[in-house]
Write a structure and sequence with these properties.
single chain; 438 residues; 3-stranded antiparallel β-sheet; alpha+beta; 18 helices
Length: 438
């Protein structure tokens, strides 16, 4: 019989894993997360950032247990059964089970080039015999319920703890990432946030969901600003993005050249995918991809040629065709490379997008007992927090041009002009031979 265990964590100190959580952690599909770095290629900039999806998942489980205990003490769990409560920490533990190697990078490829977003892949891993056996005590539909919670589609009143504006995933990764990167940016008032959590009824629908008491607004602000600082200084650091675009190019080329099939990306580890590519590019086949793998391993990264902050664009929402790595974007990159005197494949355009990470859609309980919603479809916020979140997002987001193997200089105004062009205009210019940077 599996017994609960206690482990030591550098962030949360003591974490107790209950028996069903232990069985999940011991499964082969969960152990894979030990070999996927939480921050992809950030360790090439911040050497301490070698923590993994495994560490993070266990931390989210711990926060879910703490949140449930606090809600229970206040009698906020209402008529929820024991099994309905127990399923929340296990969904938190399993929320990243479907991740690709090097975390989120491959999800920036054009839809259809990979089997799906990591959350959409969760069901494949939840179907694992060891995982299903671990969840058997929660009922026949436990696997389906957890998959819905991970994907944010459950009607469970505690859905927001697993996936939502204030989910425990965000709280955990901000604090863990800042700690292991050695930066002072991810400061979140975790205890205050957890104590401010409420289960509130939506005034419009009458349905219960996770919200926050008004006294926790200051800690919610700390979460928002920590997120902004981490995106600006860590997640979207220019060298981190340079490594990311190089990795995406490696995988895109390997898929194009049939060196690897899309399904082979599922269930892989960081080192595993690089090893497969190295093996398959030996002897001349896919030599360009093989050379890029070696460049990534030895930190020979594309150079920053120019950049412009989204907030400085005439329309911060412009350049939607630059977001996803598509055939159109690749054709534009090759044309840009030609215009600045580099061979095809020598330019990388990067305009990362994570709008959902800055969106708020949350119920707030006022001190007078009233409940309001901040975010889409509700009030703009007690201090305009929704507007502030939008401005922070556009300030953190940067359009960059990287060049390889030589550095080139491109004026920010030229990049701004490129972003202002629609996809249709870019196609027309590619077809006519007109300059993209002119």
């Amino acid at each position: 019989m599996t017994r609960p265990i206690t482990i030591r964590d550098p962030l949360w100190d003591t974490i107790r894993l209950e028996a069903d959580a232990c069985r999940i952690v011991d499964s082969q599909v969960f152990q894979r997360l030990r070999h996927i770095r939480q921050l992809g290629h950030a360790h090439l900039v911040y050497p301490g950032a070698t923590h993994t999806r495994f560490d993070h998942a266990v931390g989210v489980y711990h926060l879910a247990q703490r949140a449930l205990a606090l809600l229970s003490e206040r009698g906020a769990l209402g008529d929820l059964s024991d099994s309905e409560c127990r399923i929340i920490p296990l969904a938190a533990l399993l929320h990243d089970i479907g991740h690709y190697p090097f975390s989120h990078a491959l999800e920036e490829l054009e839809e259809g080039r990979i089997p799906g977003h990591h959350e959409a892949l969760a069901g494949r891993f939840l179907a694992d015999a060891e995982v299903r056996a671990a969840l058997a005590g929660l009922g026949e539909d436990a696997v389906g319920q957890i998959e819905l919670l991970i994907c944010g589609r459950s009607d469970h009143p505690l859905q927001g703890l697993v996936s939502g504006s204030l989910d425990l995933d965000k709280i955990e990764y901000l604090k863990r990432d800042a700690t292991f990167c050695g930066v002072p940016y991810g400061v979140v008032d975790v205890d205050r946030l957890l104590h401010a959590l409420q289960v509130l009824k939506d005034p419009e629908t009458g349905l219960s969901e996770v919200g926050v008491h008004e006294k926790g607004i200051a800690s919610l602000e700390s979460l928002l600003f920590a997120k902004y600082q981490m995106f600006r200084n860590v997640y979207w650091h220019h060298a981190v993005r340079a490594a990311t675009v190089l990795y995406k190019r490696i995988i895109a080329d390997a898929l194009e050249q049939k060196l690897i099939e899309p399904e082979e990306l599922v269930g892989q580890t960081d080192e595993g995918i690089l090893f497969v590519l190295e093996q398959r590019t030996r002897g001349g086949a896919g030599s360009d991809a093989g050379a890029l793998v070696q460049a990534l391993r030895t930190r020979k990264l594309p150079k920053r040629a120019g950049e412009v902050v989204a907030a400085e664009l005439a329309d911060p929402e412009a350049g939607s065709w630059l977001v996803v790595d598509s055939p159109l974007k690749r054709a534009a990159e090759d044309r840009v490379a030609e215009e600045i005197g580099l061979p095809a494949g020598g330019a990388y355009l990067d305009f990362p997008e994570k709008r959902a990470m800055f969106h708020l859609n949350l119920l707030v309980q006022r001190r007078d007992g009233g409940v309001l919603r901040i975010g889409p479809g509700g009030r703009t916020g007690l201090i305009g927090i929704t507007r502030v979140a939008e401005e922070l997002y556009h300030t953190a987001r940067v359009l960059r041009l990287f060049t390889w193997p030589e550095r080139r200089e491109v004026r920010p105004a030229a990049l701004a002009q490129l972003a202002a062009r629609s996809a249709a205009e870019v196609r027309q210019r590619l077809a006519s031979g007109a300059a993209l940077l002119g």
